[in-house]
Amino acid sequence: MRIALACLALAVAAPAYAQSGPGFDCAKPSSEVELAVCATPELTSLHAKMAAAYAALAGKLSGPARDHLAKEQQRLVAYLNESCVGSRDEVVGCLRDNYQARLNNLRIFGEGVYTFVSTQYLNKKGKVGKISYTIDASWPRFDGTSADFSEINRRYAERANKAAGDVIPKDTSAGDLRGEQDWSYDQSFELQRPSGSAVAVAVNFDGFAGGAHGFAGTDAQLIDLRTGRAAAPAEVFSPGDRWLEVLVPLVRADLKKQSSDGKPGFDDAIEPAKLDKLLRESGHYFWRRDSLQLIFNAYVVGPYVSGQFTVDIPYATLKTLFAVDGPMGDRR
């Protein structure tokens, strides 16, 4: 029966489940997932928190929204049974990451009008010649009817599938050249609800495909629920370049301080003219609940060894710059 009973407990009797336990008999666990949950206090706690958050949200919803929420919970359980396999540490790590992601999403869905966002999964393992590969990717799909989300959904799906495909060797020549190697692609996403009109998405990815080192980064977008499109920074802020006149010196000063504190950066990359151009690109903007986080992946403003740079700016600094009719207009 595996963990299907836990799904039923979550979807039908979540309040009792949140109070009494994991929703299956820990005296007779029937899968590695159940064993891991029962044997790991951290997972037991996360499991209960997830159920409590589910129950609280389900209690507020009805009709299509409640049905969508229940189906998503069922899909999560099916995915965990399929993907959280291997050693105990691997199972625990997989469950921890997915529980935390689901818990965050449930909390976000509870803020304002329910957002019809589902999680799409891609889990694959194989071997081509001497190269073993693993793919564990998830991405959002907007299922709501407030706008046409087909284009943004297509982009998320295509990007995930292309990135995953890039870590599958085309033939055995890679292994013949490099010998036994493990290639991988992992992708997850985080949601934030910075305003009533928008949902922010940060897609986090990392992988290895036989180079000198792996690759990792974050790509963020602000999805305008009224239009179904990803909003560019120029659409978030009032017309003109006043927002850049504020952001450029703030970001430049923060990045220079990080470099002076021992995190090497590229001085030429943060010259005002270059930073002006960089800050017009949407992918750096993660609009969190209470502040904007600007994200610069490796090589953008610093070398690979420095990793990712981030700059946080509170909305109190930016709110007068937001376009009244833009996706962040209600934060003015």
What are the salient characteristics of this protein?
single chain; 332 residues; Heat Shock Protein 90; Actin, Chain A, domain 4; 3 domains; three-stranded antiparallel sheet; globular; disordered N terminus
Strand content: 15-25%
Mean pLDDT: 90
Note the main sheet: 6 strands, mixed
Low-confidence stretches: 1-21
Identify the overall geometry.
globular
Per DSSP, the total helix count is: 12
State the end-to-end distance. Answer: 52 Å
Based on helices, strands and strand pairing, what is the structural class?
A: alpha+beta
Q: Which radius of gyration do the C-alpha atoms yield?
A: 22 Å
Order of strands across the main sheet: 1-2-3-4-5-6
List SSEs in N-to-C order. Answer: HHHHHHEEHHEEEEHHHEEEH
Provide the number of structural domains: 3
For the secondary structure, the number of strands is 9
- Proportion in helices: 40-55%
Can you give me a brief rundown of this structure?
By secondary structure, the protein is an alpha+beta fold.
